[in-house]
Amino acid sequence: MNREFLHKITLLGCLFLLITSSSGTDNGFQTPEQYAQIVQEHFANEEWEAGKELLEEGLQKYPNVSDLEWLMGKYWFHEKNYDQSRYHLVKAIDDNYNNVNAKHLLVDVEDITENYSSAICYVNELLEVNPYWRGLWRRKIELYRKQNNDVEADRLLKRINQIYPNDTILRKDYIYSMEVGYQQMKKGGNRKEAIERLTELIKVSPQNEEYYLDIINLHLQEGNREAALGWSSNGLAAIPGSGALIVKRASILSELARYPEALAFIREQMKRNNSPAIRRMYNDLLMEAARAEKQRDPYVLYGMAYEGGNKNKEALDYLLNTSVTRGYTDDALFYIREAKKQYGNNDKGILYKEYMLYRQMNEDDLAYSTLKKMYEMYPDDYDITLAMSAQHMKKAEKLMELGLYAEALPHVLFVSQKHVDNDVNGAAWEKALSCYINMKRYNEALATLDTITLHFPDYENGTLKRAFILDKMDKTEEALQLYLSAIEQSDKDMRIFYVIGYEELAVPYIKKCMEAGATKKAYEEAIKLVSLNPSSDLGLRYAINSSGLLGKYDEFEKYTAQGINYYPEEPFYQAKRATVLERDKRYEASLEFLKPILNKYPSNKEIIGAFSQSSEYRALQLTKAKEPEKALAVLDTALLYDSQNKSLKYTKGVVYEANRQADSAYYYQKYYEPSIMEYRSFQRHLSGLRSMMLKNEIALTYLRARYGEEDIITSVATAEYTRKGQKNSYTGRLNYAGRSGSASDSMEAEEQTPGGVGIQVQGEWTHHFSPKWSTTVNAAFATKYFPDITADVAVRHYLKNDWEIGVHVGYRRVAAYTKHYEWNDEFFAGGTGDNGYLFTGWNESKTNLLTVGGELAKTIEVVRLNTKIDMHFFNSNFYYNAQIGAKYFPANDGKTNINAMASIGSAPETAVLDYALPGSFSHTNTMVGLGGQYMVSPNITIGLMGTWNTYYNQTNTVRGSSPLNPIESISTRYKNLYNIYAQVYISF
Structure pTM? Predict the structure, then answer.
């Protein structure tokens, strides 16, 4: 038999080793997601081979899982084996077409391997998911460049620059693209297109000196020297004092043999830039001019003739035209004065030349004054009106640059009303619109916009401008509706443009609604925005926050999942995912979800806040489950990341309080910052904690009892000392009772006990085994009235959610008294002759009382309810007593309370026996009581309670007229007993 037993033990041991060895080779991963998470951690730590080994194991278990295939592709990409990488990444997309990570990596693979068409296709697929990702647009442009498809790249760049006009990076890319384009055209000999491209570049970047020099050179190569001179003037107007442009213009004038003009020009420019190079060029030009002068310039000859007195029209016209053309400002002014003398002050031609001369001299005020005079004289002249319009536009632009829109408005209105040129007129109306908007005259702005759209049907910005104006008029809803209508009617390309505009208005409007408390409206608008642009980051955030405030938890969870889908690494959405788990009271799951994210973003406030909140909820949950040690561990972990979080510290204090560690509870709870309404209650609570911190307590109790029918007073006094610890409390108690009465024959028949004094000495020990279990043991010995011997053992179990159950057993040796009567001849002879029995003393008997009982209690915030039942075994009979009670703690100090109780049973409640009060068995006993305690200070608590007992009472008497024939009778009745308990507790 022993061999059989050993054989079975051996087989079981082998089976155990087999199971443990097989389980030891399993990494414990149950899902592909677990494999993916650990592999990513390996890769992030540059542990590529360890990650690959685990990845191969995962793919063997879960072949063709998209995330695992993507990670394998990522491994081979790191190893620069692009064919293997492409193979696995394509498999990842086959399994999950929406695997964004795989597509991003495929773009890199195809880019590196120069398969640019494939790379562009993958970029297009990514843009289908998120069409507003500017980085993807830039990547697509870059791929077109690598493909040598500059035409498509430039077209795309121009388009995306129009959609995002404020994006400085795109603007720089656009300028660079145009610059590269004109350089290529210039190298290829395509000068005309290069000039057009440079003209556009100068509009975009008017301060670039190099552009002016290049366009001047191109015009010179085309043989168009006048155009080159014009651009040199434009460049100097934009960049006054530019040495390179001064030299360039002077060189062209020199090549044209216009030396006086060149010299005059340089002299004028030397006032601004008197550099050595320009002075040297001036001297060189002087030498060339001197040599050319030898060839007899007609201007000089005509001048000499004019000065000689030949002031005919031919000489004056030549000298005037030439001096204006050549920039001889002093000569020109002289000849203009001469011409006015001959032809009068109002000659249109002379005035126009004077106007042009002032323009060349940059004397804008004089030029405008001359032009205005001409306009007043010739208001219907097209050229004059056009020039006048140009002057007004120029003035308007300068005023608008200074922010003087009210002053600029009359100038643009002048131009808009003349209708001299469609382009000029359109530009004037747009500037008028801008003035009205900046002046906040929105009604006029709308009227102006109506005019623009009426006269210029192809105006593209009408919807954008109208929506902008409506928003400024606090008609944002109408503006958003306008965008919605435009989106419904637009094609795919324009839809993107309108959705961007819609979002730019919707986001501030939603924010405004949230700040104003219009959460429902904010939610509705956020939902509309997300429906139009599912990847809108701010739209999703507002949809999540507003749905949470409105209690729309399904929507909250839906948009949180949508946010994680588009922004899987964004901490905000990870934090909201934790909130979803918290709402389902899955606090532990929330913490497990947040831990790896917190390790990745250890300083992110949103993740730290979510982790702290989940930790707080989890700690309170564990506290209710009577697991304070685990609760403290959770809070300590959270405080490692959020050490200054006062709410976490306060919660830690709450846990310590539940674990009866009052000193630690006080230390951490004091960090809480109560509101004005909470302040008194919170201070009261801290006082209660200070009281709990005191280890010693003296309790003095006085019980005064009085019968309802008789003025008989019964009292019990109690003094006790308690030493309190976290796990153990020890109490010594002394009870004293005194009774009125006598053992002589003068006793009244109604008396039930003899007079005298009784003392009881009691010891009690309470021990907490754990947060869930405790026991109380006490024993007492007494001389009289109290039970001779008292012994009790109680066990209490603390359940989740503030439930408690308890059982107890007790033993008491109690005394019972009956009256003793004897025949007395003298008493019979001296009486009426009908009774000769006389009360001579008391008969005392001792009886054992065994008690077994149970208790159930529940705490609901500030109310504690309890019910208790005791079963007594007395004189071979069974008796019971049931009790219910409620305590209300109104002051938040843990001690101040109002207490109500009631009991009924065939036996009195145990306290009646313990306090040596009258009671009876086998008949109904009832009790009701009301009282309370008040903490005066952390050291002193007082209490007062009153009870009303109704119990069954019986009195034995013996009567008779013969010693041989005693007649014994028992009188019965119910009596009321009123008790007052006064208590004082002194802690130190």
Answer: 0.51
